[in-house]
Amino acid sequence: MSEKTVLIEKKGRIAFIILNRPEKLNALNADLFKELDEALEELKNDAGVSVLIIKGNGRAFSVGYDVSKYNNRTVQEDRDKLEEYTRRWLRIWEFPKPIIAQVQGFALAGGTQLLACCDIVITDEEAQFGFPSLPLGGGFVGIYWGWHVGPQRAKLLDLTAGSRITGKEATEYGLAAKCFKREELEEETLNIARGIAKTPLDILILKKKAHNRIMELQGFRTGIMFGPEQDAIIHTADGIKLVHEKIKELGLKGAIEWFNSQEV
Question: What CA–CA distance (Å, rounded) separates 214 from 89?
Fold first, then answer.
């Protein structure tokens, strides 16, 4: 039997959801998504759990979607798959109990969609947040960033392939709430969760809902639901096709070297 891609650990009223593909830097694939859904459902119904912490096993929180295989879908099939991803992130957003993302190592691309839908992000100050090293789409990941870092910084990072900011910068920008040294991250995140968990669960549920309502009134849900259409359209662009041709010709590493060597 293959090893589980999502693990659950509990400490009192705190539950850890642990992404468990360390050899792939917790890249998101179908198995992980299925087990993530199952873990969330289990913990939603556990009256003994008040706060969740999502973290990654190994050197990364998550480097995003597993793109080792490029699927040739129709535009409609592509849009539908992207909407499936978006609705999964909305399930994180709508989860009744507070969710903290504990970020170490790398949080890239689709991994940042996950943490952007959590309630609080706590990070290692040297962690790396950012975007794919090649322009493989658009209007799907970056729109999550704008809600936290503002439109100019979101554009600056999203329009620059391979852009990165540290955990310290992510905290200064507003993508994370606090940052700590790597060796302090686990205990400090747990302390924050314990402080939240002292409040009765019924109050926490209502408080979270109240905060989310404000962002929804500002257009958060409508905005990210636009992403699947935008990304599916961009996937048909000649520039995207060229990048995939280069990946096929040179391999991923070679395609990144080709992209970075371009003179402008």
Answer: 18
The C-alpha angle 127, 130, 131, rounded to 5 degrees, equals: 150
Kindly give the interhelix angle for 227-234 and 75-94, rounded to the nearest 10 degrees. 150
Which fold would CATH assign to domain 6-202?
2-enoyl-CoA Hydratase; Chain A, domain 1 (3.90.226)
Angle in degrees, 0-180, between the axes of helices 30-44 and 75-94, rounded to the nearest 10: 30
pLDDT at 68 over 70: no
Whether residue 43 contacts residue 10, with contact meaning beta carbons closer than 8 Å, is answered with no
Q: 151-158 vs 142-149: helix axis angle to the nearest 10?
A: 140
Query: pLDDT tens digits, residue range 23-55?
Result: 999 999 999 999 999 999 999 999 999 999 999
